[in-house]
Amino acid sequence: MKTRQSSLEYLDIVSDALQIPMDSLLSAWRSGEDVVIPTSTELGVNGLYPSHGIFIHSGILRDYFIDNKGIEHTIRFPHKTSVISPGLNDLKVNSSGIEILTETLTEVEAKIWDFNFMREQAEQNPLLFRPIIAVMCEAMYIKQRNDVRFSACTAKQRYLLFLESFPGVVNQVPLKYISSYLKMTPETISRVRTEISK
Amino acid sequence: MDAHTLHIQQALGIDYSLAEEIKAICRPVRYAAKTIVQRSGVVDTKAIFLQKGVCKYSVFDKQGNEYVSRIDGAERFLAYGYFGFYRREKAVANFIAITEIEGLEVSADNFMPIVDRNPELYTFFVDSVIRRFMKIQSKEVSIIQKSSTERYQDFRERYKDVIHDIPLKDIASYLSIQPGSLSRIRKNLSS
Fold it and tell me: Which of A156, B54, B65, B179 is most buried, judged by most C-beta within 10 A?
C-alpha cells in the first residue's frame, strides 16, 4: 500500500521534532503491516496482535477493565493517528494486577508493528528509539490531560470536553461506554444533550 | 570515587566511566521550596538527577485551582517535562519544588549525543516511560476501584520517608480526594 498523505505529514512532524532523518523514519514506517481489523475484535495479550503497536488510520477502539465486582469500566477511546500498544504486557498490567483490555468498536484500518521487531530495529539504529519514546509520551499526556480536565467539571462541561477531546467518536460509540467513561448515568447524558441542543 | 558520578551511575544503571562522561555535562543545582522550576507552555529540555527533596508536576485551571498529577521524592532521574526532554515541545505541566530540592541538572541538547553513542541509555528511557505509563494507569484504576481511605493508606506507605514534607492539599489533589475528606480520613486512621 502506498504511504498515505496524512501519514507522511505525521512522519514529517515527527522527523522534525525528534531530529531523525526522514529516510530512516520512512523505512521503519514501511516495515509495518497494513491491516483492517473487524468490529468487536479483542486486541492485546489474549487477543489479536499480542505483542504489537498499532497506528490507527480510521476507526475507534476502547480501553477498559473489569473490576473485582465484575463491572466494566471504559477508560479511553483511541482513534485517529493515536498509537496504542495493546500487546505490551508491561503496559497493560498495573500494580493492582488488573489488566487493561482493548477492543475495536468499529472496523479499524491500521498499521501494525511487532514490538520485538521494532526494538531490534532500534538497536541497529538507536535514533529510532526516539519515536517509540515520543509516542509513549503522547499516550501518557492524553491520558493525564483528560483526567485532570474532567476532574473539576460540571456534567455539561465534561460532556462538551468529551466532544472536543474525541471528535467524531460520539456518534459511533454505544452510549453505555461514554457513560462509563464520563462517570455519568445515561439519563444525565441525555439531559445534557437536550440542554446543549437548545 | 565521586559522589555525583556514583549517583548518576546508580540512577541509570551504567558503567562508572559513562557516568563520568555524563557528570561532565551536568551542573549542580539547588531550588528553594515552592520554586516553579519549569512552567507549562515553555520549551525546556532539561532534566535532573534528583538527590534531595520532594517535587511535583501540576497544572492550573482558569480559576487558578491546582491539580497535582505526580509527586516524586525517591526517584533519581526526572525530566522537567517529558515533552521538553524527549520531544523538544512545550511543557504541558509545571514542575515545582515542594521542599528545597538539590540535584544535577542536564539538558537534552548535551545529553542526547551521548545517548546516541550509548544506546543502552535509550533502553533506560523507554523503560522509565513505560513505568510512568503503568503508574498513571494504575492510579486511574485505583480511583475507580479503591476507597479514599485505601488510596491514602497506599500513598502513606509509598511515600513514608517524605510524607511529612508534602502539604495536605497536594496529597488531596494527587489522590483526587476533597481536602475536607482527607482530614477526616487522617483523623479516623489516627484514632
Answer: B54
Given the DSSP bridges, would you call strands B27-31 and B36-38 parallel, antiparallel or unpaired? Answer: unpaired
| CB-based contact B92 A145, cutoff 8 Å | yes
CB-CB under 8 Å, B82 with A96: no
Report the interhelical angle of A5-18 vs A129-151 (nearest 10°): 100
Contact B23, B5 (CB under 8 A): yes
Query: Which chain B positions have a beta carbon within 8 Å of A72's beta carbon?
Result: none
Burial per residue of A35-64, b for 16 or more beta-carbon CB atoms within 10 angstroms, e otherwise: eebeeebebbbeebbebbbbbbbebbbbbb
d(CA B22, CA B125): 15
Q: To which residue does cell 505529514 refer?
A: A9
Give tens-digit pLDDT for A43-94. Answer: 876 788 877 778 888 899 998 888 888 889 888 888 766 666 654 544 444 4
Question: Is B89 part of the contact surface with chain A (CB cutoff 8 Å)?
Answer: yes
pTM, full prediction:
0.81
Please state the φ and ψ torsions of residue A135, each to the nearest 5 degrees.
Answer: -65, -40
CB-nearest to B144 from A73, A132, A141 is A73
Interchain CB contacts (distance < 8 Å): A and B? 94
